[in-house]
Amino acid sequence: MTSHGGRVGPRRPGAVIGLACAAAILAACTFPDLTTPSPRPSPTPVPPPSLEPTPTPAPPTPTPDATPDAADIPDFAAGEIIASLIDGLRVRQRPGIDALVTTGLLPLTAEMQVVMGPFPTDGFGWYLVTDADPDEPQFDEGWVAAGYEPDAFLRATGRAAESVPYVASMAATGDAEEGPVQIDDDVDHAIRWIAADPDRAGCSFAVSLTPAGGEPVPTIRATVGRGIDRGTLQPQTFDALGVRGAAFVAVTSDCAWALVITRVPDPAPEPSVSTTP
Predict the structure, then answer these.
(1) What pLDDT digit, counting tens, does each position of 3-22 carry?
(2) CA distance 226 to 198
(3) What confidence score (pLDDT) does residue 43 get?
(4) Is residue 98 part of a domain?
(5) CA 143 to CA 168: how far, in whole Å?
(6) Could you tell me if residue 53 is inside a domain?
(7) Number of domains in the chain
(8) CA 74, 79, 85, 86 torsion: positive or negative?
């Protein structure tokens, strides 16, 4: 065997090829395939802020309070004693918040006697009353506002006057009937009434009395203008109607109204004048 003095002889071609293949395999395992990168989306331009102020929404329109129902007006009968539930109740010459005040302000618990009502005007129901309280202020007669339940200005006392001159008291808007009522033979009578058109455009008001078993007798007939009309059927005219005993009262009207049929006492006799010297 021939020695080559320790030198390595030239490499064989097969070994070179093997090394090249190994290098290629290692390169394939180390470096991934190149891919084309996806394009990034262009940024959406942001508009500059508006210089105009954002409008402030208008506040909601307040809902007005509902008008109280007429059924919430306190209901009192003619001759009933009632009392004030407020301090400073005004007594007026006629119904209405602009009517003349006829006396000092009534204190809390001041007592009055009902004549007729309620009569609606200026958003209230009004009663015609007479003074039934011995304390000041004193007054003969006037109109007071009743208010509405549960915050009414007036309350019932559960009492009535000892001597009540009222035969019947009625109040409504539109037609109404009541009876029978007793029209005494030996006593004078009168009918007091008040009426107004709620729309202030004009209305009509008519009253008739019908004796038991008889025909209606026209009693009052009035055309009411834009204001409040009042009237009294005097005893002489009432007597001329010839209606006595039990009778029915009928009102035909498109007004708001109230009325009372009352006994009229005989006038007090005048003092005699002495002719003795």
Answers:
(1) 444 444 444 444 444 444 44
(2) 9
(3) 53
(4) yes
(5) 19
(6) no
(7) 2
(8) positive
- Helix (H) / strand (E) containing 211: strand 203-211
In the DSSP assignment, the letter for residue 23 is H
Cβ–Cβ < 8 Å for 173, 195: no
State residue 136's pLDDT score. 94
The confidence score (pLDDT) of residue 17 equals 41
Which residue segment(s) compose the domain that 131 sits in?
A: 69-164
Tallying the residues shown for the chain, one arrives at: 277
> Residue 54 is encoded by which pair of tokens?
């954002």
Residue with tokens 């005097």: 234
Other C-beta atoms within 10 Å of 167: how many? 20
Residue 92 is predicted with a pLDDT of: 98
Between CA 226 and CA 253 the distance in angstroms is: 15
Q: How far is CA 36 from CA 42, 179, 259, in A?
A: 18, 108, 105
Which residues make Cβ contacts (< 8 Å) with residue 136, sequence separation at least 6?
A: 104
How far apart, in whole angstroms, are the C-alpha atoms of residue 55 and residue 98?
44
pLDDT value, residue 57: 56
In the predicted model, residues of the chain with pLDDT beneath 50 are 1-32, 34-36, 59-65
The answer to whether 102 and 92 are in contact (CB under 8 A) is: yes
- Predicted confidence at residue 7, as pLDDT, reads 41
Q: What is the CATH number of the domain that holds 91?
A: 2.30.30.40
What are the C-alpha distances in Å from 45 to residues 42, 50, 103?
A: 9, 15, 81
Which DSSP letter does residue 146 get? -
End of a domain among 110, 130, 164? 164
Instruction: Give the Cβ contact number of residue 182 at 10 Å.
Output: 12
